[in-house]
Backbone:
């Protein structure tokens, strides 16, 4: 059996990263017993298409759905009809249609980000025991409202869709397999976000506002609007929000927007800074630059330059130095406790874990082909010599750094 999923993103290729929540795959436990069904389910992507960068509109002719389908509208706006019911395709929306439904859709005002359209199979091993695949999927997607499913970060979804499209169309079978893996990540995010929002809605109104803010951060938001979502007075709302999260609503919105901009800039270097600002809700590029530097500690141009460089951290002690400069190492020791932290905090899964054994470490670095290798002066001369043959080595003595480098 098949599904139709429709993803709609706003003015931003919300990449995400993976996660802030943009696409945060952390270890927070979601207490939902029906997710146990996933142990007996298999999902396989069949096809993915993306509109050309010159397309200004996209149409889905009226037909009965026979396969599961995913539509991610990274730009533009439009409408979707499911069995005759009209649904507005809005920024950041994720939409699902079920097998057998009559579906029709149209999106206009597209830019180069376009529309992603996917189809996939779902198999349920326990179907003969009374529950159909369709019934189980409806239960997993219980948070849909008129076909819409919660997506906490369009940035994260956009990045994953880009990766899926890129890898699925590669000639190399291993690369296509990696595209399937990223598709599984997309499904995980969809299930996780839905369950997270359900738990949030059962919690306090303030947490509900936080979710609302993260889903609508690219839009014009004000205190009165957020207070209405919480169903309380603006003054009372601001006091409770700051008490709960340590930030005022305005400061939290600014922080979240800049974080989404970082994800976008880190994963795709082709966007103009003006467009990045617009994607995350800032129409004034100068104001965006000022806020970005205020929160990130470095100007946007320096952030982009740093993100383009592939820098490997041979010793775990150098990880902190790189992160202080807003540089995520392309490869670092997997054994260090910071590794999970910065992968989660900086929303990336692009860090190659390096082995502890030197021969294996050297081979991994040769495959990574970094632009630079950072050492801390504790490496042997033999290792240092071999590292020099792979890439330029920058030695930052750790003990000297404690007192003098910073």
Residues:
């Amino acid at each position: 059996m098949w599904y139709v999923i429709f993803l709609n993103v706003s003015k931003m290729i919300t990449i995400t990263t993976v996660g802030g929540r943009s696409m945060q795959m952390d270890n927070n436990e979601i207490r939902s017993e029906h997710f146990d069904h996933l142990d007996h389910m298999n999902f396989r992507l069949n096809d993915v298409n993306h509109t050309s960068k010159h397309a200004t509109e996209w149409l889905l002719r009226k037909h009965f759905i026979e396969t599961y389908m995913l539509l991610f509208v990274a730009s533009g706006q439009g409408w979707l009809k499911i069995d005759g019911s009209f649904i507005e395709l809005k920024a950041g929306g994720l939409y699902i249609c079920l097998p057998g439904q009559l579906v029709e859709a149209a999106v206009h005002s597209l830019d180069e980000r376009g529309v992603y359209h996917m189809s996939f199979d779902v198999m349920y091993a326990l179907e003969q025991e009374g529950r159909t695949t369709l019934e189980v999927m409806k239960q997993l997607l219980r948070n849909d409202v008129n076909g819409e499913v919660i997506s906490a970060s369009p940035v994260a979804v956009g990045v994953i869709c880009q990766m899926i499209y890129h890898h699925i169309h590669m000639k190399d079978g291993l690369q296509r397999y990696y595209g399937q893996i990223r598709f599984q990540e997309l499904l995980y995010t969809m299930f996780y976000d839905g369950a997270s929002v359900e738990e949030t809605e059962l919690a306090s109104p303030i947490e509900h506002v936080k979710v609302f803010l993260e889903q609508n951060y690219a839009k014009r938001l004000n205190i009165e609007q957020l207070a209405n979502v919480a169903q309380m007075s603006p003054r009372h709302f601001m006091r409770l929000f700051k008490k709960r999260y340590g930030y005022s609503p305005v400061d939290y919105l600014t922080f979240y927007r800049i974080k989404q901009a970082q994800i976008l800039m880190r994963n795709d270097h082709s966007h103009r800074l003006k467009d990045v600002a617009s994607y995350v809700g800032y129409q004034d590029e100068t104001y965006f630059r000022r806020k970005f530097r205020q929160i990130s500690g470095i100007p946007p141009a320096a952030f982009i330059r740093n993100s383009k460089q592939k820098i490997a951290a041979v010793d775990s002690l150098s990880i902190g130095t790189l992160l202080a400069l807003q540089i995520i190492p392309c490869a670092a020791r997997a054994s260090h406790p910071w590794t999970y932290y910065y992968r989660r905090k900086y929303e990336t899964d692009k860090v190659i874990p390096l082995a502890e054994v030197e021969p294996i470490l050297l081979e991994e670095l040769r495959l990574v082909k970094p632009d630079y290798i950072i050492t801390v002066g504790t490496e042997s001369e033999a290792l240092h010599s071999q590292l020099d043959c792979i890439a330029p080595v920058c030695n930052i003595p750790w003990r000297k750094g404690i007192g003098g480098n910073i």
